[in-house]
Amino acid sequence: MKTLKFKLYQHKRNRFLKRSINAAGIIYNHCIALHKRYYRMWGKHLPSAKLQSHIAKLRKRKEFWQLVGSQAVQDICQRIEKAYQLFFKHNKKGVRPPGFKKVKKYKSFTLKQAGYKFLGSNRVKIGSRVYQFWKSREIEGTVKTLTIKRTPLGELFMVVVVLTKFDGTETDPADFALDEGSKPEVEVKTSKIAGFDFGLRTFLTCSNGAEIESPQFLKQSLKILKSASRHHSRKVKGVSFGDATRTANRERARKNLVRKYEDISNRRRDWFWKLAHELTDKFDILCFETLNLKGMQRLWGRKISDLAFGEFLQILEWVAKKKNKLVVFIDQWYPSSKTCSQCGHVLEKLDLSVREWRCPSCQSVNGRDENAAKNIQAVGASTVSLGDVRQASPAIAA
């Protein structure tokens, strides 16, 4: 499966797609209300088939709901069903059931077998209207689904899922998926393996001693964000028809704030892509420690959000698959920082404030992050089998 993302050209006819997204949001909220009411009355979960049948009858009487195709309505019911199944399975882990959403913040609707048709070049017919999109790449393969997404700025994107073979075309990892069964072998080019330790002071510390500092894009732009947020909060909401100017001013300030956040996100992602290509060019196998990022988020908050280590790993894994490299994750509970990389002695306790310590066994001085990176490299190398490597290499086998 392969996912491609295209931006729709700005046009006045796009308002019909935005109205369809609003209608999808209303249907979604109505389905959530039905689920809650059904549980209160009968103490049971509302089956998806019964919900779809009921919504299909309501659509015949509600003209606005007919803006959303039957395929999109089925997808909404399936989304809710999947969310409830996850809640039933992981409710003890803090997963909450699906709730109501503001219609103006509802993001998308999905069409599957029907409701759209590609007309060639950069045109697509959705419903009874033809739209143009920025065709940045060819659509090769069988189209499975088409999703229209709306951003907070009001821009529209078309996300197309196609069934095709992996061709290595670079794209966003969030918008591209490999078949689960495809696991490429490692192609040895540099004969090097490295371990990396993630930290708050240094983004990544490599086992060879190199340190990679994060630009911390959010921290750099805090003053700009605070100013834009202050301007937005000062705008008064329009509460009547005569307050249209106030409403327009507030909306203009909101979009300005959203653009600031998008600029930070785009700069961070650009840096992640460049760093991922740089690391995969230097090393064939990259080892990392599995981290509880949600727990770290609760402890250190905005700092972890700014570093966005989870997003970087997602991009790195995609680039590694493209280049036939391997990303290895070791056990979360392995004491990488407390274990001496020289002799293997494990300390009973090591405070976070201690950045350097002397091993009581071999008397070697270990820097906290570099020592952890060396241990991650050693454990990661021990978990890699020679069958994963296309060409045997003494450096990797060691």
Task: Describe the model.
The chain is of the alpha+beta class and 398 residues long. It folds into 2 domains: 2-175, no CATH class; 193-216 and 281-397, no CATH class. It contains 11 helices and 14 strands. It has helices at 14-42, 48-61, 70-90, 217-220, 222-234, 244-282, 293-300, 302-307, 309-322, 368-383, 394-397; strands at 2-7, 108-111, 116-120, 123-126, 129-132, 142-150, 156-163, 193-198, 204-206, 211-212, 285-289, 326-330, 356-358, 365-367. The chain has a 5-stranded mixed β-sheet. A hairpin with a 2-residue loop joins β4 and β5. α1 (14-42) packs across α3 (70-90) and α2 (48-61) packs antiparallel against α3. The longest helix has 39 residues, at 244-282. The protein starts with a strand and ends with a helix. The model is unreliable at 167-171, 174-184 and 390-398 (pLDDT under 50).
What is the fold's blueprint, element by element?
Layout: E1 2-7, H1 14-42, H2 48-61, H3 70-90, E2 108-111, E3 116-120, E4 123-126, E5 129-132, E6 142-150, E7 156-163, E8 193-198, E9 204-206, E10 211-212, H4 217-220, H5 222-234, H6 244-282, E11 285-289, H7 293-300, H8 302-307, H9 309-322, E12 326-330, E13 356-358, E14 365-367, H10 368-383, H11 394-397
Parallel strand pairs: 8-11, 11-12
Antiparallel strand pairs: 1-7, 2-6, 3-4, 4-5, 6-7, 8-9, 9-10, 13-14
Helix pairs in contact: 1-3, 2-3, 5-6, 6-9
